[in-house]
Every structure is written in structure tokens, then in C-alpha cells.
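sanity check this fold:
=====
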Amino acid sequence: MASFQFVIKDAKGARSEGIIKANNMDEAIDKLTREGGTIISVKSTGEGAFKGKLSLFDKLMLSIFKLRTGVSLKILVFFTRQMSTMFSAGLTIEKSLSNLAKEEKNKKFQKVLNRLSNDIKKGFSLSEAMEQHPGVFNALYVSLVKAGEVSGTLHTVLDELSTYLEKIEDTRRKVWSALTYPFFIVFFLIIVVWVLFYYIIPQFQSVYANFNADLPGPTLVAISISEFIRDNIFFAFMLILALVMTVFLIYLSDRGKYVIDSFILRFPVIGNMINNSIMSKFSRTFSILMASGVPIMETLELVENVVQNAVIESAVRKARIMVKEGYSVAGAFKKTEVFPPTLLQLISTGEETGDMDKLLAKAAEFFEKLVDSVIDRLTSLIEPILIILMAAVVGSIIIVIYLPIFKLGLAISSGMK
């Protein structure tokens, strides 16, 4: 007999989960129905969101596949909201998908919608059809849809899922808007420095040659750098490209990703903002999974795969193992020494009261507000720092360029005396 993991609610609305033995899924559902209570989800214990570690090559291929087939989160949010609205209005899933495919302007996503519609016609469930497109619908999305299908509340789950995706997209947009300005300034600074070394300094070289005098050390260094850049422009470009690819491949490895993510979280101000953003995403994901009736072990597997930071992923993985061994959820997370006290307290209270999903939603809102406050501070702090940095770098190069002229002027004035 096979084992099936279930989540049910009794007449009072109390949630409980466990494992039941049955020959197949239908028999498991029949047994749970006879025992009373409302079935939230039933899932084979052989299924799960976490399929094991991928090799570096598999990760690279998966990244390329997602880049080639994926769509923006904004498109996915709109699709989910539209699906929820149409399904609630009484349209069939097949009809809803067909209507959305006709109106979709993104050709890549339009193909996905047409394939979903065709799979539904062949008898696939919506979650089964979505599983064929991992570049668009991740494990979290598919699991929530599957939970909605089993419990008969697909329209409610889709509505909650669209709200969840909107919140995640909003937090991501705020973080990127805060980081875009410094990235732009640094990129602009690199372009300015390159122009100075590639075009400006060579023009001064001919002037320096007429001095017939020893040039200052800083100027000689600047000329050497300029000559290297001009003579090795292709090599320099390939070196930068190789460096970027090396960092990318290191980031794909487990150890490399952990080291880089640890550095990011420890980075002053920005690390705090990113950490709060991750905690917001963690809390909101945990909340919607619990509210949708996904079993706790699968919830932890899915949360681990969506936080997108190796340090937090490792902590969730350790907590999942401890929960499996009998620890409470709050106790397991506390043992990792990664999660903030506020979140741990809310999880602990949620376990005691049975309202973990609601308290986790409050935690998500709390961390979103922290992200907003850090962004406000960052915006006011980073602008003058970047202006000073840019002035210092460009000003230093200009001084180095004109240093021989200054010295020549001093020599001439001394000679006249």
C-alpha cells in the first residue's frame, strides 16, 4: 500500500495533518471522507517540492532554460488575477485560458497558454499542465494550484496567489529601485574613467613629450594604464567577460553561492535591506502555503526553494530536518540562529493558537515596512556618498593628467625669478 500525506479541518476549523495508507489516491480520499472533516489536501508521500541537489551543469542548463522560457513576474501576476476573476465568474478553466491566450501580447507566454489549454482538453488538471512549464510556473505555484484543486477552492487559492505575487513583485520593485541608482552611478563612473584613459590621456601624451622632462610618478602610471587599455582593448573586454562568467559559475555552485550570499547579507545598509526583503518573502510564502492547506514538511521544502539566498536556504533546510525529528517549528528555526526574534515569536504564538498563517502574514507586513524605512534611509544616504566617490575618482585622474603642466608652470615661474 502507498502512503498519502493529508491535511484536514474538523467541524471547529482546527487544522490537522498526518499520513494515511491506501492503494491509491481515490481510496485515501474515501477513507478521509468517512472519518469526517473537510479535506484540504491529499498528496503522495513520494511527491515533493525538493527533488535533491542538482549538479553544476544541471543548474547552468536550468538557468538557460528559465531565461529562454520564463516570463516576467508582472505578466504572471496579471494572468493569475485574470484567471481568478474568470473562474469565479463561472467560466471553465479551458475557456478562461483560451480567452487569455487570445488577448495575450507576449508571444512567449501566449504559446504557454495555448499549450495549457490543449493539455486541459486532453484531460490534464491545471496543476499537471502547469508542471510542464517549470520556467514559468515554479514548484510553489504548482503546489498551491494543486492544493486548490483537491480542496475545491481553486478560485480562492488563485485570488490569494495573485495577491501574494503582487506583494512579492512590489517588494522586489522597491529593492531594485533602491539599488538601481547606485548601480547606474557606478556604471557611469566606469564609462567616464574608460573615456579618460582611452581618449583624453593619449591626447596629453604628445604634449608631455614636448616637455623633455621627467614626468611625475602618478602621471607615468596613468600613461601606462592608458597604453595597456588601448593596446589590449579586445583582451581587456574578454578578461571582463571571463571574470563575469567565472563569478556566475561560482555563484551556481553551492559553496560559492553561500559565500557570496553571506557577503551580501553582511554588506552595510544594503545587506540589512535585502535580509528584511527575504524575511518578508519567507513569511508571506509560509503564510499562503499554510492557509492553502499544504502539509508542513512540503511547506518548508517550498519555502527553502523560493527564498533565493543560500544562507537562509541552509537554515530552512536544517529547520526542516529538525521538525521531521520532532522539534516545534519555532524551536527549529530558533536553533538555526538566522531568523530574527520578532519572526520567531510570531511563529511560536501561531503554533500555540493555530493561527500561524495569519501571524506570518503580519510578519510579512512588518518586514515590508522595515524594507521601506531602509530604502528611505538608503536613498538619502547613498546619493551624497556616490557623488563624493565620483568626484574623488574623476578629480584624482584629472589632477594626475594636469600634474606635469602644474610642475612646468612652477618651473617657468621659478626660472623667471
